[in-house]
Amino acid sequence: MHAPVRVQPKKKKKAFWLKQLHSWHWISSAISLIGLLLFAFTGITLNHAADVEGSPQTVEKSATLPAALRTQVAPDNAPDSKKPLPAPIAAWVEKEIGARVAGEAEWSADEIYLALPRPGGDGWVSIDRQSGQLTSESTSRGWISYLNDLHKGRNTGAAWKWFIDIFAAACFLFAMTGLLLLQLHAAKRRSTWPLVGAGFIIPTILILLFIH
């Protein structure tokens, strides 16, 4: 009968860390996969924004506030201020222009003005406090611009900012576990560190020589 093979502590420890690193590497890669594809694609479109973005399309709309709501925007002697639209007026405006109305509007003596920026476009709403006349304008720059703004986190709101932070943490974990796996396998792959070094040296040279 053969005696049981005893695994050396050093090899056992290495096997443990290999298993852990592989687990965290594939988990972080799965979490960040779609985000990486999106940000890689938009990295290209942002680099060639002048060539790929379409022509802006602008839509203008107008309407008149119902008499029952007009008293809530009637002129007064209050100083200029910033505050949200009253809920009933906001609901009516959303129905008329087909867009979500949020944020603080600028209230002056004659007008209420609300900017409506969004990914891939811009917009605004103006209400004449005397006549109740509503005017709105919405501009769309196309889906490429929309994706580019997602990349930059432009006018995307708190939820998307949280996503970017979590996605960045997953990418960091993916890269660090990949680096540690490279270190563990480097002895059998001689090209490992030259390739890692090239990934650092090439952009450094480009920055020093061509970016001023």
UniProtKB/TrEMBL annotation:
Superkingdom assignment: Bacteria
Entry's transmembrane regions: 162-181, 193-211
InterPro entries: PepSY_TM-like_2
Keywords from the named record: Membrane, Transmembrane, Transmembrane helix
Signal peptide as annotated in the record: none
Descriptive protein name: PepSY-associated TM helix domain-containing protein
Annotated organism of origin: Sphingobium tyrosinilyticum
